[in-house]
Amino acid sequence: MKKHWQYANSRGTSAGSMICQLCGKRIEQGLFRYAMTYKGYEDHVYVCQHQECSKSDAGWVAYVATKHEAKRKMKERLKAFKEFKTKWDTIELDEDIEYMEESLKRIA
Ligand SMILES: [Zn+2]
Which of 14, 15, 72, 86 pairs as cysteine with 46 (C-beta 3.0–4.6 A)? Predict the structure, then answer.
């Protein structure tokens, strides 16, 4: 059965044992993919693989592109919010600005 891979950053996401199925090492940083596989009738486990170990997967291209696009949009919004804040001398956007600045630091 074809696996439905999900792509994630190990910072913030965890799936199953977090041991790479391909190299046998623990996934401690960076990107990885995971998929649920069934063992028997109801039992399931997550299979995990480092991005480095599964580079041939074309799904990585789309995942990384989506992330870059999200980051680009957030940067654009952050800039607009800061300009608005300066122009109107308001504190209403402070929480959003702080949230976006923190998020941008976390997006690899
Ligand atoms: Zn690996």
Answer: 15
Cβ atoms within 10 Å, residue 31: 20
2 exposed, middle or buried (CB, 10 Å; 0-12, 13-18, 19+)? exposed
**What is the model's pTM?**
0.73
**Rounded distance, CA 101 to CA 88, Å?**
20
Q: Which of 32, 87, 23 is nearest to 63 (CA)?
A: 32
Domain ranges of the chain: 6-54, 67-106
Ligand 1 center–CA 15 separation, angstroms: 14
Rounded to the nearest angstrom, the distance between the alpha carbon of 90 and the centre of ligand 1 is: 48
* Distant-in-sequence, close-in-space partners of 60: CB < 8 Å, separation ≥ 6: 7, 31, 33, 51, 54
